[in-house]
Amino acid sequence: MSILRWGILGCGNVAEHKGGPPLYTVEDSKLIAVMRRDRSKAESFAKRHEAKRFYTDLDSLLTDDELNAIYIATPPYLHCEQTIRAAHSGKHVLCEKPMAMNVEECQQMIDACNEAGVALMVAYYRNHYPNIEKMKFLIDDGRIGDVVLARVNCTSYYNPNRADLKNWRIDRTISGGGVLMDIGSHRISLLEFLMGKIETVQGHAETVQSDLPVDDSTVFTLRFINGAHAVANINWNVGVSNDDIEVYGTKGSLKCSPLNSGNLILQNTSDGIVDMSQEQLPYTHTGLVRDFVNHLRSGNPIRCSGESGLRTNQVIEEIQST
């Protein structure tokens, strides 16, 4: 019997290509049911991903007794209510990022899951990339000495014809904001995973170049409790695409470029330049689901927990308030 028996809430593009397949390709995880209001699309999704059944309303999904976990792949403004309802139905929750519209909602989600005795994970899947896990190991192993600085450069040119920048992502009432909430949240979570708890933050999230009703550019600096710093820029308004993260220490550096790959280069005073590239996961969410299974099997802490998701939202709110 599978440890996790999933229902998917929201059968859109993210569930189709990123979050859905790991639910049935990871060991001890099985996809049972899916839900989407459009009946034909729900049925088609279920067939493609070999789910047993499909629903067109949330109540039917949540009262399915075969399920013990819900993957919430809906826009952010729905995350809080849907997580609370899933928790009340006794289901574990994997919630897409950003966790919620604000810190208050994040806390409500955490409280509901704690009271119900169910697990809550937030889908900051990059924290489980093999190259990032290797980077974390090398940092903790002292291969670049004492860590002093991290740098993030993430640019993606805004094309008015990009479908994902013409829909809910640029409606603040649905998404909670622009590039900071969408892509920046991933990088904040990643920096905390690599560098430790964040102590202070300063930054800006503004509409600089485009005619979008949300921020197309954010720059921020972080100071961690260990004294290290991070600087980051996240953009929808730069004409070339970059996706790099670098970490510098007193004896060397680590660089992933692009982040969404297995690429990793170590450079230090004793080894010189070493290719530490790792094999990519079959799907972006594979590591998340493996970690969820491991948590339920062994009790080990969840890496991308609700508490860590709340801390990411706290940083976002501080930047937005600047």
Please characterize this protein's 3D structure:
This protein is of the alpha/beta class. It has 2 domains: 4-124, Rossmann fold, CATH 3.40.50; 130-280, Dihydrodipicolinate Reductase, domain 2 (2-Layer Sandwich). 34% of the residues lie in helices and 25% in strands. It contains 11 helices and 14 strands. It has helices at residues 13-19, 22-25, 39-48, 58-62, 79-88, 103-116, 130-140, 172-175, 179-195, 286-298, 306-320, and strands at residues 4-9, 29-35, 53-55, 69-72, 92-95, 120-122, 147-155, 198-206, 217-224, 229-235, 242-249, 252-256, 265-268, 272-275. It has an 8-stranded mixed beta sheet with strand order 8-9-10-7-11-12-13-14, covered by helices on one side. A 6-stranded parallel beta sheet has the order 3-2-1-4-5-6, sandwiched between helices. Strand 12 and strand 13 (265-268) form a beta hairpin. Helix 5 packs parallel to helix 6, helix 6 packs antiparallel against helix 11 (306-320) and helix 9 crosses helix 11 (306-320). The longest helix is centred in the middle third of the chain and has 17 residues, at 179-195. The protein is globular and about 60 Å long. The termini are far apart.
Describe the structure concisely for a colleague.
This protein is of the alpha/beta class.
| Model regions low in confidence, pLDDT < 50 over at least 5 residues | none
Report mean pLDDT, rounded to a whole number.
95
Number of domains: 2
CATH superfamily of the largest domain: Dihydrodipicolinate Reductase, domain 2
Query: Which structural category fits the helices and strands?
Result: alpha/beta
Largest sheet: 8 strands, mixed
Question: What is the string of SSEs from the N terminus onward?
Answer: EHHEHEHEHEHEHEHHEEEEEEEHH
Name the overall outline. Answer: globular
Total helix count?
A: 11
Approximate strand percentage = 25-35%
Rg from alpha-carbon coordinates:
20 Å
CATH architecture of the largest domain: 2-Layer Sandwich
Give the strand order of the largest sheet, numbering strands 1, 2, ... along the chain: 8-9-10-7-11-12-13-14
| Estimated helix fraction | 25-40%
Care to count the β-strands? 14
The separation of the N and C termini measures 50 Å
CATH class of the largest domain: Alpha Beta
